[in-house]
Amino acid sequence: MYQIYPLSFADSNGDGFGDLAGITGRLEYLSDTLGVDAVWLSPFYRSPMRDWGYDVSDHTDVDPLFGDLGDAEALIERAHELGLKVIVDYVINHTSDQHPWFQESASSRDDLRRDWYVWREGRDGGPPNNWLSIFGGPAWSFDETTGQWYRHTFLSSQPDLNWRNPDVAEAMLDVARFWMDVGVDGFRVDAAHHMMKDPRERDNPPAPQDHQTPWKPMGEYDDFLHLYDGGHQDVHEAHRIFRRVVDEYHRDALTVGEMHIFDLPQWASYYGEDLDEFSMPFNFHLMAADWDAPSVRAAVESVLWHVPAGAWTNWTLGNHDEMRLASRLPEGHERIAATLILTLQGTPFLYYGDELGMREARLTDRVSRDPWGLNVEGLSRDGSRTPMQWTPAPNAGFTSADAEPWLPVDDSYRAVNVETELADDGSLLNMYRRLLALRRESSALRLGSFLSHPGSTDELLAYRRESNDEAMTVALNFGDRSASIALGSGRVAFSSHDPTRSDEVDDEIELGPGEAVVISHP
Ligand code: NOJ
User: Fold this and answer.
1) From edge to edge, which strands make up the β-sheet containing 347-351?
2) pLDDT digits (tens, 9 = 90+) for 322-350
3) pLDDT number for residue 366
4) Cα 39 to ligand 1 centroid, rounded to whole Å
5) What are φ and ψ of residue 198, in 5° steps?
6) CA of 151 relative to ligand 1 center, distance in Å
7) Rounded alpha-carbon distances, angstroms, from residue 490 to 445, 499, 501, 509
8) 191: Cβ below 6 Å to ligand 1?
9) How far apart are CA 339 and CA 343, in angstroms?
10) How sure is the predictor about 365, in pLDDT bands with cuts at 50, 70 and 90?
11) 200: which residues sit within 8 A by CB, 6+ positions away?
12) Residue 427: exposure state from Cβ atoms within 10 A (0-12, 13-18, ≥19)
């Protein structure tokens, strides 16, 4: 699965913003050059773009920045011709405050849609409780016109929908039906566990002094334990209903729920007791783990241990909310990172440009675009959302040479781009292509069982993948020195550092620092 952030992938009309026709024109890069199976498109719906599309004002129309509905249909049709599946973002927790539903809801306390959002009286002249917005400040804003507070998990311009109102649930399920009719193959469900909160709306308790946040530091949001502002039990029933609707259309549709839950049993509960909720909850455990062989091994083993029988997981190291992996990980570790997620048991999710080694851009000379970064210092996501780097030409071939891209192209583009890397056998892009090709033809890597290799050390991580007719061992050297490991006899099917390597291995194999190999056993 390859994630496209539509604003930043390819601009077909020279306005500096990526668009759907731009993506359609680049689909062959994904299907043929790179060799992925599916794409996930971040939102391209009508939106005032306060949160760059995650604030939807019309779920069933395309924002003019991206084109129109015809462009969406053309994209999906072309993708299908090329054998690519397409999943789209489904933003369930909130809408834009510009959405007609919210405009009506906010118009008066008696409006028929008042209860479509969450309106409350204040407490002691302030907000109804102590819940905070993930993007900074209280999770409640006061509305002067009607004299009540409304709830927002994210920006004040992203009011929370009230999913306990059956009309809201039905209207949102119609949105899913609409996109299934258009032809999508599934959904990435945004902020999937946030939509149901404690019905009694109790205050969150303060976090103890030594409390470790499982994910990245998030400013004052970390001052509380988030016991009551998400994941109330009835969230599961809502997801079961959603899954039934999707399944009615397309039994093979994929639904991936975004949730930053690091308690594994709780995380796994989103598959559903009868595997009737998400096809898979998004797995961010590798992003939260320390980046060394024992910690990565522990994260992998514990995730796989918790995936319910008959279910399937996913792995990812990057997305539009995180610092670019090439900048987050130690210098030179892009290759073991790619090998890891492309050889683990589960569906790998790649983020556009990571296959080139795009780095976190430093955007000091321009106004920040990301509202989170504007609200909370250090949390801007702009640096990982810069334009895709296609060529060494001005603007990296993302848009016309004289246009101003919505975020500046990172300076690295002269060397780090598709065209230049394709011409270099040893490039990261060509390494991804080799690995994806190997995965495609290997039943062990695609579908096989996973077994940790007992020879793993503090520097080396190794594991075996095995199907009925094939066995492969993967070894990754996280250390900064060469190291050897006995993997049994076989042939080198892949080396991250040497595209020509295919020698026979007796037993022991030496890996250079940051090197990854895959051995195919007879
Ligand atoms: C999660 C999305 O990944 C993020 O980009 C967005 O800002 C929030 N949800 C709000 O929709």
Assistant:
1) 280-281, 254-257, 186-190, 85-91, 38-41, 2-4, 347-351, 314-316
2) 999 999 999 999 999 999 999 999 999 99
3) 62
4) 18
5) -55, 120
6) 16
7) 16, 17, 13, 10
8) yes
9) 6
10) low
11) 228
12) buried
Q: Please give the single-letter amino acid code of residue 20.
A: L
> What is the spatial distance between Cα 266 and Cα 376, in angstroms, rounded to a whole number?
28
DSSP bridge partners of 431: none
Identity at 296, one-letter amino acid code: V
Average the pLDDT over each of 26-35, 361-370, 499-508 and give the range with the smallest value.
Answer: 361-370
Q: Which helix (H) or strand (E) holds 302?
A: helix 293-306
CA of 5 to the centre of ligand 1 (A): 12
188 alpha-carbon distance from chain centroid = 8
* Nearest partner of 86 among 78, 76, 77, 96, judged by Cα: 76
Question: In this predicted model, what pLDDT tens digit does every residue of 495-505 receive, in sequence order?
Answer: 999 999 999 99
Please say whether the beta carbons of 18 and 387 come within 8 A: yes
State which H helix or E strand residue 296 sits in.
helix 293-306
Return phi, psi of residue 7, to 5°. -65, -20
Instruction: Kindly report the protein residue whose alpha carbon is nearest to atom 2 of ligand 1.
Output: 190
Q: Which residue from 352, 346, 334, 354 is spatially nearest to 476, judged by alpha carbons?
A: 334
Nearest 5°: CA angle at 25, between 21 and 29? 140
Q: Are 106 and 147 spatial neighbours (Cβ–Cβ below 8 Å)?
A: no
State phi, psi for 104 to the nearest 5 degrees. -65, -45
Residue 349 · residue 325 · CB < 8 Å? no
Rounded Cα distance between 515 and 428, Å, is 12
DSSP class of residue 76 equals: H
Question: Is residue 332 a contact partner of residue 517, using CB atoms and an 8 Å limit?
Answer: no
| Nearest-CA residue for atom 6 of ligand 1 | 54
- Residues 115, 106 contacting (CB under 8 angstroms): no
Burial group, residue 469, by CB count within 10 angstroms (0-12, 13-18, 19+): exposed
